[in-house]
Amino acid sequence: xxxxxxxxxxxxxxxxxxxxxxxxxxxxxxxxxxxxxxxxxxxxxxxxxxxxxxxxxxxxxxxxxxxxxxxxxxxxxxxxxxxxxxxxxxxxxxxxxxxxxxxxxxxxxxxxxxxxxxxxxxxxxxxxxxxxxxxxxxxxxxxxxxxxxxxxxxxxxxxxxxxxxxxxxxxxxxxxxxxxxxxxxxxxxxxxxxxxxxxxxxxxxxxxxxxxxxxxxxxxxxxxxxxxxxxxxxxxxxxxxxxxxxxxxxxxxxxxxxxxxxxxxxxxxxxxxxxxxxxxxxxxxxxxxxxxxxxxxxxxxxxxxxxxxxxxxxxxxxxxxxxxxxxxxx
Length: 330
What we know:
Nuclear Transport Factor 2, Chain: A; globular; 5-stranded antiparallel beta sheet; 2 domains; 10-stranded antiparallel beta sheet
């Protein structure tokens, strides 16, 4: 009898430990993203590496505790996930070189052995793009303040503003002389860097219709491994359409057509995420892997620009969108 009790007890403990471990293993993308950035903010490098794709943090010297700078808040919106990738809209606010800043980007995650991990390489690229966009907005403010000066003085002010903002970004996120500051020595260098090392370039779109009965006009589009068409200043916090195309690695959406019928039950179709505001003004999200109609056409690239057309609808739901978009692929 004693032997039986011991076996049963050991089995119970094994099941209990397995259940406890499974909770961490099955953590949702939003939870992993929040834990990762908390670890980074607190300087807990070991914990951050546990939550990131192996090797993706190597070489990074990101430092949230640099003197003269601070992060006031890091907030997250609802995660959008498919079976093999996830995006968690992330917003950081704080001060750099006594200048208030607020920028948004996606914390990107991928499954590693069934566990969601932060892909820091992709995430940091989008993050630097958001920082550069914030810097460019500040350039505009600096130029506006100096509008009464002569054109030569304005040029000097712009050059000075680039140096100041470059230094603030460098001090806030990178240690040492090398890094982002070298890419912001001039406005032309910054623009060139944005096409190679930063987030997606936003171009104009004219896609209209309704999402779950709510009328929308989507006026912006971009490509960053996903096709995003949206209203307002970002897809993550506005009515939007986001398509995961699952192209082979290294392949771009050039000169191709994608057609999906709502009654096609085969695998491999794009995953579609669409967002809209309900009657109370709250942002809602729907994710579809099937049951929709899609006609998506990408044209041939011309000087890095690709024009396209889209028609999307969900049978039995007041969701239908149609129009044209442009994306930048260099």
